[in-house]
Amino acid sequence: MQTAYARRGTEILRFALIVFACAVMALDYRTFVEWGGLLPAGATGLSMLIQRILQAACDSSGVGVTVPFSPINIALNAVPVWIGFKYVGRKFTFLSVCVIVLTGVFADFMPVDALTSLLSEAEVARLKDDPFLASVFGGIIFGFGMSLCLRADATTGGTDFIAIYLSEKKGRETWNLIFAVNAVILLCGGFSFGWKGVLYSIVFQFVTLQVVHLMYKTYQYQTLLIVTTRPQRICEAIYRISHHGATVIPAHGGFTEQNRSIVFSVVAADDTPRVYALCKSQDPQAFINTISTSRVIGRFYMRPRE
């Protein structure tokens, strides 16, 4: 019973985190993204581009209609969501659908002055007149919201589903695909509304990626080289935390001239603090060297998505 209650509590916290993240990203859409004429990456950026084109067409024709963001975003995510349900994971995709829907609804119904009421008129005017500031602060806020979603095991949808599918199921690199999609979106935005917004959108996307890289480390890898006299215990500790194996290499101390072992393993970066602690508890004298790893080829355990 306690396990069931704990699991239910975890799910409630995950959903609450997602709702908060959606509100943060929607607030960013309504303020910094609009002020700077910015375009986020992926399906979100394409949805905003289509929304702005349709809104400009309505305004020029004298039709007093406000084009909503959420229906466009939901429609563009239909195929990626299907890929997610079929190939990636049902719970992960369901939570991602919640992100897509809630962010769109919040963005459509959130008042324009939701943030400006907290700032002075001079501060608001400066942010609106300085696209660089808008792109930097907007990127920080958007990256923060995305990181919260990723920590709750959800995503903002669009190309994320396709990238995960190609990476985990097909073993293909996805960077070139995502880069090409974003480049096409930015080019279309440049031809439609001018190149100034495109240049600041690049800054916005760069800052977003840096924040996500700083806050979310699941897809970052660390190579561990552990010098120890208890290699079996260290290997068991690594497997207990990360489900990764290890290679034991015989070694000889150059100063102490005593026999040692080097335990070599690659783990996800977000597992390393717990691996450190458990390894030190098994061998307080262990010497641990950590190396950032940019790429792993071969069998590498990834937690299955629900």
Q: Can you walk through the features of this model?
A:
This protein folds into 2 domains: 2-215, no CATH class; 221-293, 2-Layer Sandwich (Alpha-Beta Plaits). The chain has 12 helices and 4 strands; from the N terminus they run ααααααααααβαββαβ. It is of the alpha+beta class. A hairpin with a 6-residue loop joins β2 (247-252) and β3. It has helices at 2-36, 42-61, 70-76, 78-88, 90-109, 121-129, 131-151, 159-168, 175-193, 195-215, 231-242, 272-282, and strands spanning 221-228, 247-252, 259-268, 287-293. 64% of the residues lie in helices and 10% in strands. The chain starts with a helix and ends in a 13-residue tail after the last strand. Strands 2-3-1-4 form a 4-stranded antiparallel β-sheet, with helices on one face.
Largest sheet: 4 strands, antiparallel
- The termini sit apart by 22 Å
Give the tally of structural domains. 2
Q: Which secondary-structure class do the elements indicate?
A: alpha+beta
Helix fraction bin: 55-70%
| Tally of strands | 4
- List the secondary-structure elements in sequence, H or E: HHHHHHHHHHEHEEHE
Output the number of helix runs.
12
Uncertain residue segments: none
Using only C-alpha atoms, the radius of gyration works out to: 23 Å
How much of the sequence lies in strands comes to 5-15%
- The averaged pLDDT comes out at 84
